[in-house]
């Protein structure tokens, strides 16, 4: 808009100035003014070329357009007009005033009809220059010369200016000086005017900590050299970084998948562009090509043109022979063979001029000659020569070389490859014992009162009572939690002391019976301690006395024999034809001591073990040296005892019923036999690697068995895996007396030994037959004293809690809790 208005003003001024020139010449001041501003005017883009009608309309409206332009122009154009006024308004107004005066006079004198102008536009603007101001004209300063003329000072042009530097204008002028040079000053540099740029204030330590925790968007951790503050990334820079990380284009306006412009095939022509028929030469073979083909065929036949593959073959026609083709590969033998040991260097005795002390005396020389050559200490007789040239030849040289070669031939040296195995890799990865709790770790209660070794103990199914039997002939019942003795009875009197001992005791598994079985010598005593209520005591005694109503003397009905198609190693069960035991009522003296029933064995040695059936009506006893009556099964309800085997297979150490199947486990010195009581056949025979088994315990699920042996071993048998032991553990220092599984559902088992320790293990049995049991050692319990090479004699778990009871040769029983 400024350009158009300036054009109008220029044209009107030129026309009026031409008219004025016909009457009056311009003043020298005007000429000077125009000439002085001639360098400041630019003509490009300021002259509008239009029709004559447009020029007439512009001449008639040139006075109104400046006002309209002021309303329509933007703030930028208003700034340009204010600059024009400040610069040349004085000159332009004076010219316009003179021209207006001339116009008035000319209008009054001029005719009414319009006249055509004969002067050209070039002549009109010949002596007039029009100046245009750019957007940066606001930085032009006005001053005057010494003669008072107007002087315009324009901004200095930076010769190193680049278009990209407009946004990187540096406010701080320190240059390449590092900011560390200003660390001790309150300012960080100087601006363009030489004034200090003060350091921005820093927040407190708490604010700095919060800022370091809550990082703002665009945080870089860098300092701005211009301001000394934190330099953050802008949103455009963050967006650019995000696009680079996302493998996107950095320019969001660019579309990499623009549609292809089919310049030639987009428009399908209906008719051909040319209807000219095809020439005949398109269908006739070319004569020139025929000539070229004949030349190529002739060159191939003459051999001047050869195929590249044939050229390569001809280049390598000469054969290359491998000198070591037939040589044997001895690299392996060379790597595994050791070099022959070198001969020992000669000593002073072998020197041609040895010291006097190395020479033999006449006596030593005579002894050396009489000694056999294989037994001589020296193979060479030391001699002394005055010079090396006087040394004679060695007669045994060839013989010694031959003997050395013979030794090297008959004794080859081979490098044996050692297995480079990390010892830690052989140790299985086991879970931490902290993750396998609960298990007993400390002794919480000690039961004292017996004066001899406590060989037997048993926990009541309710878990409240503990029964112990010792060599002093007494049986005591203790309260588990308090350790208080609630019952005591004497089983072995003074007349039998020294011959019989209380070897084993066992509570009846039925909680409402309260029956305690005690094995001492050749007898089994059944008692009901008066520690329960009237109902339990009455129930237990009635079960004991109920069997006296059955006939049990003489022969009984003979049962059918079992199948006889077994191997020699299998034992068959046979019907019992006579009683092997006698069931007696107690004598008055025994009744006073609390004994309710006495079972006496005939031709039976000492009873070592007692085990109840899960229903509480049957119990089995084992005697090592009783022959075919080593294992007897007793029925409480009928007072009948049976010997299931007609012959014995070794020394029987223990016998137990299966937890829920009609099977009987019989332990001998080296074998474990499993019998089916219904079919009366041998089901399985387990082979142990121990020399003398001591006891056995069966897992509550019935598919795993652990045994203790007197040769310091604990063996774990998996019945579904093999007849051999799955795991053989040897961690005790002396004989292992007892082993026991936890019957309350916890994956725990333990072993007791004569070394005075009890080892607690975690044993998980999986339902998956493909997974082997997991055995993890947990704790080693020590507390029992070793007396006469005897330590812990027995152990048993609490029915529900992760507690274990132990008894030892020191006359104490202990409760170990978590």
Automatic annotation (TrEMBL):
GO cellular component assignments: nucleoplasm; PeBoW complex; preribosome, large subunit precursor
InterPro entries: BOP1/Erb1, BOP1_N_dom, WD40/YVTN_repeat-like_dom_sf, WD40_repeat_CS, WD40_repeat_dom_sf, WD40_rpt
Compartments in which it is found: Nucleus, Nucleolus; Nucleus, Nucleoplasm
Nucleus recorded as keyword: yes
Extent of Polar residues compositional bias: 1-10, 134-146, 574-584
UniProt key word Membrane: no
Region entry Disordered, spans: 1-153, 557-588
Acidic residues composition bias: residue spans: 27-90
One GO MF term: ribonucleoprotein complex binding
Major site of localization recorded for this protein: nucleus
GO BP, sorted A to Z: maturation of 5.8S rRNA from tricistronic rRNA transcript (SSU-rRNA, 5.8S rRNA, LSU-rRNA); maturation of LSU-rRNA from tricistronic rRNA transcript (SSU-rRNA, 5.8S rRNA, LSU-rRNA)
Pfam families (alphabetical): BOP1NT, WD40
All copies of domain BOP1 N-terminal, residue ranges: 182-440
Domain of life of the source: Eukaryota
Biased composition (Basic and acidic residues): 11-26
Protein keywords: Nucleus, Repeat, Ribosome biogenesis, rRNA processing, WD repeat
Ranges for the WD repeats: 447-488, 792-818
Functional description taken from the UniProt entry: Component of the NOP7 complex, which is required for maturation of the 25S and 5.8S ribosomal RNAs and formation of the 60S ribosome.
Quaternary assembly: Component of the NOP7 complex, composed of ERB1, NOP7 and YTM1. Within the NOP7 complex ERB1 appears to interact directly with NOP7 and YTM1. The NOP7 complex also associates with the 66S pre-ribosome.
Family: Belongs to the WD repeat BOP1/ERB1 family.
Protein name per its UniProtKB record: Ribosome biogenesis protein ERB1
Organism name: Komagataella pastoris
């Amino acid at each position: 808009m400024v350009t158009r208005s300036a054009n109008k003003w220029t044209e009107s001024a030129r026309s009026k100035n031409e008219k004025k020139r016909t009457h009056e010449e311009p003043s020298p001041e005007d000429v000077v003014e125009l000439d002085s501003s001639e360098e400041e005017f630019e003509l490009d883009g300021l002259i509008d070329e239009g029709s004559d009608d447009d020029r007439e309309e512009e001449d008639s409206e040139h006075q109104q357009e400046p006002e309209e332009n002021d309303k329509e122009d933007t703030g930028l154009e208003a700034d340009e007009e204010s600059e024009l006024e400040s610069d040349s308004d004085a000159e332009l107004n004076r010219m316009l005033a003179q021209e207006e005066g001339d116009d008035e006079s000319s209008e009054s004198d001029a005719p009414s009809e319009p006249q055509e102008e004969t002067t050209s536009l070039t002549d009109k603007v010949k002596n007039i220059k029009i100046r245009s101001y750019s957007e940066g004209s606001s930085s032009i300063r006005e001053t005057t010369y010494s003669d008072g003329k107007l002087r315009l000072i324009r901004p200095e042009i930076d010769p190193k200016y680049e278009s990209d530097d407009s946004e990187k204008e540096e406010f701080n002028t320190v240059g390449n000086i590092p900011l560390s040079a200003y660390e001790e000053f309150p300012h960080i540099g100087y601006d363009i005017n030489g004034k200090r740029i003060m350091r921005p204030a820093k927040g407190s330590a708490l604010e700095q900590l919060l800022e370091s925790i809550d990082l703002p968007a665009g945080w870089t951790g860098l300092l701005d050299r211009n301001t000394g503050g934190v330099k953050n990334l802008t949103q455009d820079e963050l967006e650019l970084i995000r696009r680079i990380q996302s493998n996107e284009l950095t320019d969001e306006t660019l579309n990499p998948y623009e549609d292809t412009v089919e310049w030639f095939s987009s428009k399908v022509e209906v008719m051909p562009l040319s209807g000219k028929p095809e020439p005949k030469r398109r269908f006739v073979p070319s004569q020139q090509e025929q000539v070229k083909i004949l030349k190529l065929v002739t060159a191939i036949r003459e051999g001047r043109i050869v195929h590249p593959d044939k050229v390569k073959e001809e280049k390598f026609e000469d054969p290359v022979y491998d000198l070591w083709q037939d040589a044997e590969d001895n690299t392996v033998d060379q790597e595994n063979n050791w070099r022959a040991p070198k001969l020992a260097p000669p000593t002073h005795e072998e020197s041609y001029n040895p010291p006097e002390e190395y020479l033999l005396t006449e006596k030593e020389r005579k002894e050396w000659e009489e000694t056999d050559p294989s037994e001589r200490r020296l193979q060479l007789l030391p001699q002394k020569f005055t010079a090396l040239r006087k040394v004679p030849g060695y007669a045994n040289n060839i013989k010694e070389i031959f003997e050395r070669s013979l030794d090297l031939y008959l004794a080859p040296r081979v490098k044996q490859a050692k297995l480079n195995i990390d010892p830690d890799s052989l140790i299985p990865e086991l879970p931490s014992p902290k993750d396998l709790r609960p298990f007993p770790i400390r002794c919480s209660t000690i039961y004292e009162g017996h004066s001899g070794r406590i060989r037997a103990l048993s926990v009541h199914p309710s878990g409240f009572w503990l029964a112990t039997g010792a060599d002093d002939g007494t049986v005591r019942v203790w309260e588990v939690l308090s350790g208080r003795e609630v019952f005591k009875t004497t089983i072995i009197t003074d007349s039998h002391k020294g011959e019989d001992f209380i070897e084993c005791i066992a509570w009846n598994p039925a909680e409402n019976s309260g029956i305690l079985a005690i094995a001492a010598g050749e007898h089994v005593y059944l008692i009901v301690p008066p520690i329960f209520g009237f109902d339990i005591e009455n129930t237990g005694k009635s079960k004991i006395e109920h069997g006296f109503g059955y006939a049990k003397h003489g022969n009984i009905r003979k049962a059918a024999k079992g199948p006889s198609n077994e191997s020699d190693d299998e034992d068959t069960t046979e019907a019992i034809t006579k009683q092997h035991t006698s069931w007696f009522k107690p004598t008055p003296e025994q009744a006073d001591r609390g004994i309710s029933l006495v079972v006496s064995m005939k031709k039976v040695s000492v009873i070592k073990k007692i085990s109840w059936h899960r229903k509480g009506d049957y119990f089995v006893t084992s005697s090592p040296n009783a022959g075919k009556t080593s294992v007897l099964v007793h029925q409480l309800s009928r007072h009948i005892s049976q010997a299931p085997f007609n012959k014995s297979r070794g020394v029987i150490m223990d016998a137990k019923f299966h937890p829920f199947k009609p099977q009987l486990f019989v332990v001998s010195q080296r074998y474990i036999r499993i019998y089916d009581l219904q079919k009366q056949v041998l089901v399985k025979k387990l082979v142990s690697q121990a020399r003398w088994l001591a006891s056995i315990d069966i897992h509550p699920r019935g598919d795993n068995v652990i045994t203790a042996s007197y040769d310091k071993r604990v063996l774990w048998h998996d019945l579904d895996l093999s007849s051999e032991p799955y795991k053989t553990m040897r961690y005790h220092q002396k004989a292992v007396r007892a082993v026991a599984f936890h019957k309350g559902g916890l994956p725990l088992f333990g072993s007791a030994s004569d070394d005075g320790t009890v080892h607690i293990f975690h044993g998980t049995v999986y339902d998956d037959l493909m997974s082997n049991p997991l055995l993890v050692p947990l704790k080693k319990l020590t507390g029992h004293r070793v007396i006469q090479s005897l330590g812990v004699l027995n152990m048993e778990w609490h029915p529900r809690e992760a507690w274990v009871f132990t008894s030892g040769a020191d006359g104490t029983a202990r409760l170990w809790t978590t």
